[in-house]
Amino acid sequence: MLTIALPKGRIADETLDRFEKAFGEKFIFEDRKLIMEKAGFKFLNVRNQDVPTYVMHGAADLGVVGLDVLEEKEYDLIKLLDLKLGRCKVAFGLRAGEKLNFDKSKITIATKHEKIAKKYFEQKAMAVEIIKLYGSIELAPLVGLCDCIVDIVETGETMKQNGLEVGPTIMETTAHLIANKNSFYAKKDLIFDLKDKLEKFL
Ligand code: PRP
């Protein structure tokens, strides 16, 4: 049995579609249930940011999570496979018409990707104040909470509809299959078999 933590929402649905193709069975969470057992798998329906936590603690052998979340959490996990799902980027969002002003003595950024933003400014040896938010990030520069934001951009529509422009990209991200280190050694055959099957449907 392999336990797999999936991030609630579209990525979970798209991952389960891949399993359907690979194993010829339907995998659907019933109504509000957070666990689904089928065909030798136990799927867990968890919040995106919580996926590495479940895998890290061994409560799940495997997980599906965006590279940005992995980068943000810096967990010691094995990256098994790029599922090529949920392609998006972590980028700056600026008030329309404004540019990133690198001459300013200190830039204030609102983001839920604190570490990624911090690293970017460390590499540029620039002072930055980071304000941690948990959502609706696009609102922050509009009401003067920050100079600009660092956030996930997929189509760019959320920024556009909130009077922001997409600025420089910090990183590209897609959903990856990850493994707990102990599980990886203890269940190597099962894990490689799954990886081979999923790879055929990328
Ligand atoms: C992300 C991000 C933006 C939106 C961008 O939120 O924070 O709000 O998607 O997508 P777009 O460029 O296609 O408009 P997400 O849906 O991941 O929800 P979350 O804030 O709960 O993480």
Automatic annotation (TrEMBL):
Recorded family membership: Belongs to the ATP phosphoribosyltransferase family. Short subfamily.
Pathway(s) per entry: Amino-acid biosynthesis; L-histidine biosynthesis; L-histidine from 5-phospho-alpha-D-ribose 1-diphosphate: step 1/9
Main location per the UniProt record: cytoplasm
Organism in which the protein naturally occurs: Aliarcobacter vitoriensis
Gene behind this protein: hisG
Protein name: ATP phosphoribosyltransferase
Subunit organization: Heteromultimer composed of HisG and HisZ subunits.
EC code: 2.4.2.17
UniProt GO BP: L-histidine biosynthetic process
